[in-house]
Amino acid sequence: MKILSINAGSSSLKFSLFNMKDESVIASGIFERIGIDGSYTIKFNGEKIKEDAKLDTHVDAVNILLEKLISLKIVESLDEIEGVGHRVVQGKDIFDKSVIVDEEVMKKLESIKSFAPLHNPANMLGIEAFMKSLPHAKNTVVFDTAFHQTMNKETYLYPVPYEWYEKYGIRKYGAHGTSHRYIAETLEKKLNTNKFKLISCHIGNGASITAIKDGKCIDTSMGFTPLAGVMMGTRSGDIDPSLLPPVMEAENKDINQIINDLNKHSGILGLSGISSDMRDLTEAYNQGNERAILTMNKYARRITDYIAQYYVLLEGADNIVFTAGIGENSFIVRKLVCDNLKCLGVKIDDEKNKNCHGEALISTDNSKVKVYVIPTNEELMIARDTLELIK
Ligand code: AMP
User: Which of 175, 191, 316, 344 has the greatest number of beta carbons closer than 10 A?
Assistant: First the structure.
């Protein structure tokens, strides 16, 4: 069976087509600048094609994708694609697992649109486009928030007036749930059990740390929105909200502009003044740039803060996993974080850490906590959920 995994943004649509027999990727790519001018890239069979195309709407992108899958002989017939899984950023407390799309689900998605105004409406455009252009296939929705629905009330409530939660749904929802679940399930397969305590560190441009016990999320660092938690590429993570009014006044900014500063001009970019990209920061760090050193140490410190918090919450941890762009590729960040955790008995093997490619155990034999690097695969998780729901 073939399944499409879709991540639709406001002006883009990323796809991966899986053969679920062996979970191999048959083709993948991205449609970009939808509603502006339009271009697409499709990778298949070791080839890559990149072309301009008129993409007025997401339906245009989907129609070209389907037409290309046939003309490039990636599939013989569109009937081979039996399921389409869609990433949806926010499921609130309405969705605690992936579901097949029907009218009721679309209504519920509509009702929670305002909780992720930049993402959910775009995700819905993707669903609507496939419903129209590939009517025989079943569509499913896989939520970034669903895995975190097992957090208890004490964890997900903020210490603010309780009515804010009751009236406006103000609480922690988390994000990156599909990635953290993939990590927990990959480790479960490796260890042949889910009876373990895991701290999963998804650190890419966005970053979140999650405490997982027996396969369930206990706590996570992102909050009401993905702005909370550790510092990220351009996001501040947790800050004292009282720092906002003096800056707003001094810079004559309104609340949306200042939140935009916290989302787009803070984190690694804001503190270093160099770049939001860890590769650029690392280069400056290695050259001895003072701001880069400060930023790198602060970055590692914020991740350490959450790992330490979750270590206590879980009453010890069996495993720490690093994943996503920085977690998978930056041995310096992994080293700085793990060195900060020495007092917990965390020890990594410097050679294994430096030379690891793909999945690897990087802790020493006598480390009290096993430390792994596991590449995440949210697209595959979406495809797996879709297969499970439609078969
Ligand atoms: P993601 O959002 O998961 O795609 O991760 C993007 C982040 O991963 C960016 O900050 C990249 O600089 C970082 N990254 C990717 N490759 C490397 C690498 N080889 N070394 C250090 N950081 C990397």
Answer: 175
